Amino acid sequence: MPEQDIDLAVQVGPIAMKNPVATASGCGGYGEELAPFFDLSRLGAVVTKSITLRPREGHSPPRLVEVRAGMLNAIGLANVGLERFLAEKLPALARFDVPVIVNVAGSTPDEYVEVCRVLDAADGVAGIEVNVSCPNVDRGGMEFGTEAAALARLTEAVRREVTRAALLVKLSPNVTDIAEPARAAVDAGADALSLVNTLRGMAIDPWTGRPALANRTGGLSGPAVKPVAVYMVRRVWEQVAGPRGVPIIGLGGVQFAEDVVEFLRAGATAVAVGTANFVDPETCANLVDGLPEAMARLGVARVRDLVGRIDTD
Ligand SMILES: Cc1cc2nc3c(=O)[nH]c(=O)nc-3n(C[C@H](O)[C@H](O)[C@H](O)COP(=O)(O)O)c2cc1C
Questions:
Q1: Are 206 and 166 in contact (CB under 8 A)?
Q2: Mutational test site, ligand 1, from 63, 103, 198, max ligand atoms within 8 Å of CB
Q3: 251-287 pLDDT, tens per residue?
Q4: CB 55 within 8 A of CB 161
């Protein structure tokens, strides 16, 4: 099968992506930071770092540490806040022909609702990805995403405001069964699911006894989490997303074209690339270049035909 005949296009809810490769939230800044390395218009979508209602400085350093087969981070949602994002960051993406998905975080449901309401009305926002892995200050710091009932209420509340853009809910892997929050988000009206966010972790210097991160704990990402993410995508696809026709953006350790194929087979319609951007900022462009060859080798002409296809005989 000639590589030029491969159709890479996929549809994530109402968002038409020219290929299944997106940036992952927080790993390519507001989007434009990756523009010196390749043309962002080549991507399926750009996902921004989490935007909150007010500016946040985030946690004190050190807030990133390399560990074996991955990375731990405790950035603490550092960002310029909604107002400056709309004035400076979002307009900078308008010159690229790529759907922009804005990731949103907050510490109360009202904060999420307000940010989503404003973004839904903004030009150039194709999708809103709700990051539910943030501590809910109304509930003593418990994450929204780890309790299905709280997640359902939050998703319903933002769904009422998000009437134009696609609504994606990004799930936390720090749960017993990822199918439960997935079902809650879909029942409450999510157009698509992104999974996974980072796995909670910790590193301690064995000789000094000091935690490696100033925040003590952080989120694990990179190659180490890929099998967990693939399993969770498969679980959600089988239990919720597949039967309901809800697309999944799969992420966690995606670095090579075969990783994209693996996530598609697990049930993802598209993938997002996080930690691998820190290894090579051209990773996303390399994936777009490498996918046709992988598809030709498989003899599958359309990327979307691979979604969910595993061989269990
Ligand atoms: C430095 C860093 C910052 C991140 N910031 C965010 C963020 O602001 N919002 C969010 O939803 N996820 C954030 N994430 C999580 C990633 O988007 C992604 O879900 C996770 O890292 C797994 O993918 P990966 O293994 O490809 O990095 C961050 C991850 C890293 C490593």
A1: no
A2: 198
A3: 999 999 999 999 999 999 999 999 999 999 999 999 9
A4: no
The distance of Cα 268 from the centroid of its chain, to the nearest Å, equals 12
Return the best residue to mutate from 23, 27, 225 for the ligand 1 pocket (most ligand atoms within 8 A of CB): 27
134 is known as an active-site residue: yes
Report how far apart, in Å, the C-alpha atoms of 197 and of each of 59, 194, 219, 277 are: 18, 8, 8, 16
3-state secondary structure of 224: helix
State whether the beta carbon of 253 lies less than 6 angstroms from ligand 1.
yes
> C-alpha angle 250/19/163, rounded to 5°?
70
- Quickly count: other Cβ atoms within 10 Å of residue 179's Cβ: 19
Distance CA 16, CA 98 (A): 10
Each residue of 221-242: pLDDT tens digit?
999 999 999 999 999 999 999 9
User: What pLDDT score does 174 carry?
Assistant: 94
